[in-house]
Amino acid sequence: MIKHHIDCTDCKNTDCLIKKHCNDPGIEPYLARKVSIPARKGQSVIIEGAPIHGLYFMFSGRIKVLTTGINGREQILRFAREGEMLGQRGFSTHQYSPIGATAMQDSIVCNFPVEMMKEMLMSLPKLSYDFISFYAEELHRSETKVRMFAHMTVREKVIDALLYINRKFGQRKNYISMQLSRKEIADFAGTTEEQVIRYLSALKKEELITLSGKRIGIPDINILKKEIAEHHYFIQS
């Protein structure tokens, strides 16, 4: 049963920035005013180009963060899981959201409106410091990704995407636990669905991965990592 109010003190997502500070003096009034929002599979949590309504913190589920590229093509920027933040790219810098976010399965997100979030950051220095650290790390990852992707072949981009997805969602019964379509992998890797199908088939023949319908398995992570080791780079979770 989906709940419409989540108590941060009962939340198990220890990686959540809000959860880390839920016992800080002065934060209780803000936690009481937050809203928990359920999202069904396929439902938009954030609509690209719509007014910004604050920051979202994932309580449960899986969500893809995306933007519209050339010729209206969808580009997946990242996948989000429990404890992660949504909407940070536009917070306090844009009036309208530069990204969209869509639930890949039934999910619940906790929303802190813009003005309340700003008030929290002004009032809680420890929380503010963690936000600064978070944004610095996010900027570093983004810059590294842009730099290294420029030197990667399509095959290497597909491999790196598989390694990222495996780290993000883990494996269950020898397959990556989150099933993604070939198009979703292509939209994340920055290539075409046809190229993804081609290289997945090649990697299967080389016994670097296993395939069963949409399910993808990676028998030996370290062997697959060697394929892109020269770049000294792997997309972080």
What would your notes on this structure say?
- The protein has 237 residues and is of the alpha+beta class.
- It folds into 2 domains: 8-125, Sandwich (Jelly Rolls); 149-231, Winged helix-like DNA-binding domain superfamily/Winged helix DNA-binding domain (Arc Repressor Mutant, subunit A, Orthogonal Bundle), CATH 1.10.10.
- Helix content is 37%, strand content 21%.
- It has 8 helices and 12 strands.
- It has helices at 17-20, 28-33, 114-123, 125-149, 154-169, 182-189, 193-205, 221-226; strands at residues 35-39, 44-46, 55-60, 63-68, 74-80, 85-86, 100-103, 107-112, 171-172, 175-176, 210-212, 215-217.
- A 4-stranded antiparallel beta sheet has the order 1-8-3-6. A 4-stranded antiparallel beta sheet has the order 2-7-4-5.
- The chain is elongated.
- The mean pLDDT is 89.
Short précis:
With 237 residues, this protein is of the alpha+beta class.
Blueprint (SSEs and pairs):
Layout: H1 17-20, H2 28-33, E1 35-39, E2 44-46, E3 55-60, E4 63-68, E5 74-80, E6 85-86, E7 100-103, E8 107-112, H3 114-123, H4 125-149, H5 154-169, E9 171-172, E10 175-176, H6 182-189, H7 193-205, E11 210-212, E12 215-217, H8 221-226
Antiparallel strand pairs: 1-8, 2-7, 3-6, 3-8, 4-5, 4-7, 9-10, 11-12
Helix pairs in contact: 3-4, 5-6, 6-7
Cα radius of gyration in angstroms:
19 Å
Any low-confidence stretches, pLDDT <50, length ≥5?
none
Order of helices and strands: HHEEEEEEEEHHHEEHHEEH
Measured as a percent range, the helix fraction is: 25-40%
Strand composition percent: 15-25%
Q: What's the overall geometry?
A: elongated
What is the top-level CATH class of the largest domain? Mainly Beta
- Secondary-structure-derived class: alpha+beta
CATH topology of the largest domain: Jelly Rolls
- How many E-type strands? 12
Mean pLDDT: 89
For the biggest sheet, the summary is:
4 strands, antiparallel
Give the name of the CATH architecture of the largest domain.
Sandwich
Give the terminus-to-terminus CA distance: 28 Å
Number of domains: 2
The named CATH superfamily of the largest domain: Jelly Rolls
**Discrete helix count:** 8
**Largest beta sheet: what is the strand line-up?**
1-8-3-6
